[in-house]
Amino acid sequence: MNAEVQFDLIITIVNKGTCKNIIKASKQAGAEGGTIIYGRGTGIREDKTFLGIPIEPEKEIVLTIVPQTNTEKIHAAIIEAGKLDQPGAGISFVVELKKVAGICHLCDPEIVIPK
Predict the structure, then answer these.
(1) In 3D, which of 75, 73, 61, 65 has the Cα closest to residue 9?
(2) Are 71 and 10 in contact (CB under 8 A)?
(3) CB count, 10 Å around CB of 87?
(4) How confident is the model over 23-58, as pLDDT tens digits?
(5) pTM (2 d.p.)
(6) CA-to-CA distance for 3 and 5, rounded, in angstroms?
């Protein structure tokens, strides 16, 4: 792997049913895809009930590994697509990755992945 290529992990947590917009926007901004994990929320806005029974809101967590040179553009697209500037819409943050394996095609331009 080329040690000069640095990667970030964009983590986005949104309400169930929202991740398709996130993935589409991130791909249009230059990401190659993402991983979706399902979870439950426990934030301050998640204390809803139905007939007195607490409802645990379902969440979608989108993990997107991107080269650091593309992070700002892709993260901005995710924020816009998920309307994350509005309260209760979700959260997105970036974590710098120290080591990455399994995405060699992003590290070495000589490797061609068939489409």
Answers:
(1) 65
(2) yes
(3) 7
(4) 999 999 999 999 999 988 766 555 666 666 666 678
(5) 0.79
(6) 6
